[in-house]
Amino acid sequence: MNITSNTTARIGFIGLGIMGQSMAGHLLAAGHSLALYNRSREKAQVLVDKGAQWCDTPAQVAAQSDIVITMVGYPSDVEQVWLGSEGIIANARNALLIDMTTSSPALAVRLAAEAEKGGHQALDAPVSGGDVGAREARLSIMVGGDPAAYQTALPVLRLLGTNVVHVGAAGAGQHTKMSNQIVIASTIMGVCEGLAYARAAGLDETVLLQAIGGGAAGSFQLNVMGPRIVKGDFAPGFFIEHFLKDLGIALAEAERMKLALPGASLAQRLYTELSERGLSRQGTQALFQHYLAGA
Fold it and tell me: Fold for domain 175-292?
């Protein structure tokens, strides 16, 4: 398979959530043939109306695609879509399989091995950038797997992100994403605490963001999530429940490596408290409500 910026491929895309729908849309807009599957068909309709093909099962997607991309919720979802007699490995034909879900590094290694047995290539390519990055095709994409498979996938991945990096062998993409989530965990806590302090001090929070956003405190979390927090906008760009999933994977890997991560552990505890308050489907910036509650 030789794909360049001037050629098109038959691409299958499975998982049309907050980020997946935009990502699939970029592939369709670039002229690629697109076959779709999602647990709820209504999320696919806008893309079907633009020319994508709906499939009733992941197996149907795999059977007609040169490249299959999955962007689902949890490692268990990845296993269900990839493995078994109805999975994409069993039904694809010498395909390149790319999992862009944030999932377990060990599972990524297993999937790569199973894909090779089936005559396919596999990459783990989780992303960072949230709903904004997905809509604007500005995602950071961290790719683990065979270098040749990476080169094949690169023209397609560049339609989705501006920072696409091959970080190592199978599983390395997921390990890199865990590092990303660990950094975010402590950063978003800092943003929320800084804004809580500003509010208690009677500062204009919008002016505060302007004052500190261009300095050493500047970050995606401050400059993108900060304004949402100030507006009281806790709609999800990335669900709390999914961030808790990621932190659980990261902390389990850290424990296996005998590594203490106090910041990530605290973030997990705070987000768990929010989840127990029924806020698991809000965005990660909703952590600010912990401080509003005076906890």
Answer: N-(1-d-carboxylethyl)-l-norvaline Dehydrogenase; domain 2 (1.10.1040)
